[in-house]
Amino acid sequence: MNVSTRGRRLRSRAATAAFVCAITLLPGPSYATPGEPDPRNDQSIEDIHDELNGLYRQAEVATEAYDTADVKAAEQEKRLASLHKDLTRTEDRLDDLRDLAGAAARTQYRGGNLDSTGIQLLLGDHPDHALDDASQARQALRNLVTVSTIQKNTRAELSRQTDAAAEKLRELKNTRADKAEAKRKIENKISEAERIEAGLKKEQTRKLAQLEKEEAQEAKSRWTGPGSGDGTSTGSGSGGGRVKASGAAAKAVAFALAQIGKPYVWGAVGPSSYDCSGLTSTAWAAAGHPIPRTSQAQWQGLTRVSLASVRPGDLIIYYDATHVGMYIGDGEIVHAPRPGRTVTTAPAASMPVLGVVRPGV
Q1: Taking a C-beta distance cutoff of 8 angstroms, is the pair 276, 335 a contact?
Q2: Catalytic residue among 49, 126, 289, 335
Q3: Would you call 323 a catalytic residue per the annotation?
Q4: What is the DSSP letter of 2?
Q5: Is 84 a catalytic residue?
Q6: Which residues are bridge partners to 358 per DSSP?
């Protein structure tokens, strides 16, 4: 390889390497700093309860945006890596074509013949069918007139791939910016809620817990799906033995129930912590049926069923598809509720139901 060819290849490698370096140099998100306790002495327990729920709901909406951006960034990084490989292969082919054209020119200048096998290996779609007779050799030599055309097409392909990689890199930067902004919102809302909770007096904390208990009891009475007293219960008894499920659904339910007590952490998919859709997606993956990562993607991508026909293993989607829980029978779900809480069971009617989806069908 001559000096000029080596220089071209080094410059090509440097250009494609720049895409990889650019990914790692993207700035990371900043972290929120906890503040001082925020007393709520002039508010009723109901108002405090509503304010906290509102903050945690906003944090959950931002968590959904974060999870969506996280999935999107992973896909974009994978595509960028693929484009980088395509760029490298195209650069190699262009360099080989340059070498071949140079060798042909030198050989013709000397009045000699160019070995046809190397030409066929380079220009052919199937290099294992290299030239093996004189007739094909003559044809290969005639093919040399197409080298400049092939070079032109390869340069155009290299330019297209370079532009595609640059565009994908811009998309990745934007997605990571969206992810960082969602992270900032999550941390701000959680920090604000934690300041309020830290400022509560002991009696206020007790009353708040009692209010949440009463709401759970009321939610049980609002359940109109299976197990609501119409003789269509999908479970029996109480505790871990209540679930009657089979196949993959039984495995998914068993996995989700086994995570009870593990903390909610936004963006987490286990094994030590989960957010709401992290729990449901990991549970169904453990059952051998991978499903979309986010609650919105689960709502959009899985088979929808009526609330009246819900059965253990189905996913109940809440609000505007920003929360999800897994139905376990007897009008209850297992879910990862919010920051500061752990994976637990809850009445299926404890939140506004958007609909039900069924994985594995």
Answers
A1: yes
A2: 335
A3: yes
A4: -
A5: no
A6: 303
